Here is the input.
Amino acid sequence: MSNLKASTEAPIISTKPKTKAPLKQRMRKHLVHLFLLPAVVLYGVFQLYPLITAVINSFYSWDGFSRDSFVGFQNFTTLLTESPFKETFIRAFTHNWIFFIVTFFTELTIAFALALVINSRLKGKGFFKTIFFVPKLLSVIVIGFLFSLILNPTSGAINVLLKTVGLDFLAQPWLGNTSTALVTIVLIHSWAGIGFSMLIFLASLQSVDKEIFEAARIDGAHGVSMLFKITLPMVMNSVMTMTILTFIGSFETFELIFAMQGSAGGPYYSTDVLGTYFYRLAFGSAEGGQALGLGSAIAVILFLIIACATSILLYYFKRKDFER
Amino acid sequence: MKAKGLWIVALVMILSIFVSACSGGKDVASSDDGKKDVKDGEKTKLVMYSWRPEDRSMYEKAIAAFQDKNPNIEIEFQPYKSTEYNTILTNALVSGEGPDIIQLRPYEGAKSIADNGYIMPLDDVKGVSDINEQFLDAARGSDGKVYGVPLSLNSAVIFYNKKIFKDNGIDVPTTYEEFLNVCEKLKDKGITPIAQSGRAAYLLSLTHAAIGPTAYGANDFVDKVLDGSAKLTDPEFVKSVQWMSDLKKYFPKDFVALEDNDAQTLLYTGKAAMYINGDYRLATLEDTAPDMEIGIIPGFAEEKGGTPVVTTWVDGSYAGVKNSKHPEEVKAFMEFLASPEFGKIFTDEMDRVSAISGIKPDNEIVSKLAEAVDQSSTPYLMLVHFGKGEPTTKTTFENALQGMYLGKLSVDEVAKQAEESYEKAK
Here is the structure.
């Protein structure tokens, strides 16, 4: 908001003769900057300050209560080279990648397909749009709780349903099996996020000039060729945005896993991601054991991963943009 | 017209600021007066932190009993959610603007707070020296001084449904071998022998605490741990893990995916006959299923006819914050917590065993358990002696057990992971 004000008012003043502007006007010119202050203060207190503190903390050892001594990069080397920290870190990091890849192929593709369907000449568009968006309105904790009930191995709806229709062999302890737990949670996450992605894609599709599609159709584009040659390139910007947002979301993911599997990322660390690992190190368990230095180091590494990967993705997509 | 309107608005605003400033001044003055009143009556308010919001009614009764004798001390019970307690407490202690009385996590949790100098030593408080030395260990600093008054003594026990045992002609087992026979019999009848859940890994180490001591030789092994000659990879300890692995066939199907609530439901509905947890679950079980007759197996004896060994640990204790403005009043309350009067209120309100010696509980089951504890007890090995490290050896061990049940680790690997974690934490 305040940015907007500054940029709209500044040019008006600068059009007046620059020499010897009355004192009052010069004051006003500077006064304008004051409008930025609330935003700067909020950003500073809630974004910059914690970030800087985390970076500083990651270079110190902790005694559980207060900062102890400066240890340089020791927290980072401990995390990345010492057992069992190294193994836990690599496992959690891999799970974050699985999280991203599965979300990308389920949430984004299904959302895009839904957006295409809704963008076509479908009856009751508004109704479907609302229905698909509803899960986004639920809190993550509520979603976690509901799905824990649905996936309960003895009384949960999914297994009861599978057994009723005679598919007993498919009934699984979905969240209690190391091979299914992570994917199950990612699918729940995707289900919850489809509505939002769909709206972004839909908005992007609707902003494309209809004449382009008609022209392509006259030129003989149909079905798949229309999708890959015309539709996708036209909405590439939104695909790019959603890919980057999904990447950031996948590496920051924490709430759903914490709500469903606890901070240990159970069973046997099969759903452990960097977020839950960070939580365990920084805040410990009921029996104590806080290692804020190590926790902060994870936070810093996480920040660097997201910043680097986002820049690379942005650079790649921007270049593609120019090539077109 | 417009200008006139603006003037009126401005006037109203100025007036309202003036009025509110005046009334604000009055408020300040009156609150000052209030403070003076308190000082005149010498009434002191102490703030007390706890991680047990569910125990409020017991504390209200206890505090009322305390105030009968100390009318000038007011105590405000401020509980927080257990999972958030550590963070809130740490922040309060570091900022120095915290409570006067705090609940301490046992063993390593208490030690780290004591060693950092946040709480006052309580050795000279009346009643503290009468408490069992072993219980006081839960609240000792590295300097050997006592920093907390232990509240309760928890035991890892096996609950059983008396009716199912009676209907199937099963006697209550007293040794591990008898226990296995009982499990086998129940399984043959189509009843799940043990309602175990494994979603939260700590429940697995709790089951190990109830079953394990007989396997590793209870206090003999604990003594070896204390003098440093025992390893978790020693055959005695590996045997206890083997026993855990053997019990898998008596647990419900897919029990690693089950929550503690699901396990309790199996017991309530009569689908399972036994349930292993801390004795503090008794009140919950009795409240939820008042018609079910519950019995407790406190532990196993080495041989038939022997004394059962009960696994016990102190759950929490109360400490006085060093920089409290009212240290004398805090100590008066500590003295009350260490008195038989509080012990009696605690045990009868909570159906749990008090850490204060010589308290006779009203509840029959609790009373029997307290007797068994008096006869022979062994500490909850993982919690009491393996609570160090990042992550702690206890956490490593229970997660490894979960891995074992999922086929990811062998029995030996579980012991090895725990030993490696212990070596690192030393």
